[in-house]
């Protein structure tokens, strides 16, 4: 499910596609100029939040939370009271880090405007090795931000709705992206 939330950010970087509507170009500009950003949404009717600033991010799915401070990643499983600590490789970051996906979207995906709906875009990966088969996104004519997404992966489909973006001009300090384990949590350090 963490990849699905990342797609929300991926969609806002479609400026390189010649057929992208003007509202999408505005979202790209807004996303690239933001020092920090928070996205709230429902993924298959379950709430999720992603907070980003620079290379750092926090993904919150309620029962699972992922923190990344630019070097170290903490994956916290709330029901099991367990956190796994890793220093992800470049390949792992490409799969989980929103900024990596943002940087690679134009190189890794093809996009076309949906016929009859100028604010909808269909994305398909350029390689057969992607877990994502297709993404369909509809953008607001007013704000340019995505208002709905459908993500088709090898393991199923996710419908993302109730998407809201909050952008900040102030960068969030890296210390905010370091996980502090609550008392009683089992720590598995794989660094």
Describe it for me?
This protein has 191 residues and is an alpha+beta fold. The protein is 21% helix and 44% strand. It contains four helices and twelve strands; from the N terminus they run ααββββββααββββββ. Strand 3 (56-60) and strand 4 (64-68) form a beta hairpin. Helix 1 (2-11) crosses helix 4 (98-108) and helix 3 (90-96) packs across helix 4.
Notable characteristics:
191 residues; 4 helices; 12-stranded mixed sheet; alpha+beta
Question: In angstroms, what is the radius of gyration?
Answer: 17 Å
- Secondary structure tally, helices: 4
The average pLDDT is: 80
**What structural category characterises the helix and strand content?**
alpha+beta
What shape does the CA trace take? globular
Give the amount of beta strand, in percent: 35-45%
- How are strands sequenced across the largest beta sheet? 7-8-9-10-11-1-2-3-4-5-6-12
Compressed to H and E, one letter per element, the order equals HHEEEEEEHHEEEEEE
Largest sheet: 12 strands, mixed
Helix content: 10-25%
Span of the ends, CA to CA: 24 Å
β-strand number: 12
């Amino acid at each position: 499910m963490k990849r699905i939330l990342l797609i929300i950010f991926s969609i806002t970087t479609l400026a390189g596609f010649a057929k992208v509507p003007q509202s999408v170009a505005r979202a790209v500009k807004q996303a690239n100029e933001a020092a920090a950003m928070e996205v709230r949404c429902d993924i298959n009717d379950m709430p999720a939040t992603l907070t980003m600033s620079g290379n750092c991010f926090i993904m919150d799915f309620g029962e699972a939370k992922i923190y990344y401070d630019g070097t170290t990643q903490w994956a916290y499983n709330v029901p099991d009271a367990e956190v796994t600590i890793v220093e992800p490789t470049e390949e792992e970051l490409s799969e989980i880090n929103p900024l990596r996906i943002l940087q690679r979207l134009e190189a890794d995906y093809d996009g076309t405007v949906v016929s009859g709906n100028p604010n909808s875009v269909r994305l398909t990966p350029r390689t057969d090795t992607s877990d994502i088969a297709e993404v369909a996104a509809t953008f607001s004519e007013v704000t340019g931000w995505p208002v709905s997404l459908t993500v088709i992966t090898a393991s199923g489909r996710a419908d993302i709705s109730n998407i809201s973006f909050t952008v900040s001009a102030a960068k969030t300090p890296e210390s905010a992206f370091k996980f502090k384990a609550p008392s009683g949590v089992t720590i598995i350090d794989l660094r």
